Amino acid sequence: MKKIIKILTIIQFSFLFSANAQSFTGTIHTPNNQVVEGVTITAKNTSSQASITVMSNNDGTFTIDVAEAGDYELSFESDVNPLNGVSTFDLVLISKHILNILVQDSYYSILAMDINGNGIVTVFDIIYLRQFILGIDFIFPVPAWRFLEAMDDPTDFVPLPEVDTLHFHVDSGETKVLDIIAVKVGDVNGSFIGG
Ligand SMILES: [Ca+2]
Ligand SMILES: [Ca+2]
């Protein structure tokens, strides 16, 4: 009898433990499904301000266990591989977009083309990117990578999705699974190679 009570207590304890554990987990990948490692992800509880930071693994996955259920702000940052996937061909694509010759209709492409991060694609973005490709004393005006939740339809911009700092609610015991798109700024045709 004693033994049974002991086992029941252990079961109860593990149940309590699992009921209290909640987490955010997911994979970070480009629109072309290249996984992106080394992304710094910070989850901050918007009430307590308690925060925890992890990095995405080699396969683009991440898991953040958080102490409390509630509302969280997840920030994604990376300046890894800023030139990977960026070439003069991307410059040509931005020019064609501006001239209405070949319009990029995906929001992921808009983020890739908006080098100075002001929300619009103009000739200034071409100037910035050209400087970058030529290695002329250049740092990205915005982070080299932008992050957002995968969109159901990337050609539908209404409402505009959150970028870089995303907001989520996690319930007690919930594992919130996220599908995160990483856009390499400057890589309009998605030629970034991960891994
Ligand atoms: Ca711009
Ligand atoms: Ca490219």
Write the layout of secondary structure elements.
Elements: H1 2-20, E1 22-29, E2 40-45, E3 51-55, E4 61-66, E5 70-77, H2 88-98, H3 107-113, H4 123-134, E6 145-149, E7 165-170, E8 175-184
Parallel strand pairs: 1-8
Antiparallel strand pairs: 1-4, 2-3, 2-5, 5-7, 6-8
The structure holds calcium ion (2 copies).
Detailed description of the structure:
The protein has 195 residues and is of the alpha+beta class. It has one domain: Immunoglobulin-like (Sandwich), CATH 2.60.40. Helices cover 25% and strands 28% of the residues. The protein is built from 4 helices and 8 strands. The chain has helices at residues 2-20, 88-98, 107-113, 123-134; strands at residues 22-29, 40-45, 51-55, 61-66, 70-77, 145-149, 165-170, 175-184. The chain has a 4-stranded mixed beta sheet with strand order 4-1-8-6. The chain has a 4-stranded antiparallel beta sheet with strand order 3-2-5-7, with no helix packed on it. α2 (88-98) runs antiparallel to α4. The chain is elongated. Mean pLDDT is 90; it is low at 7-11 and 13-18. Bound molecules: calcium ion (CA) (2 copies). The site of one calcium ion has 8 residues, from α2.
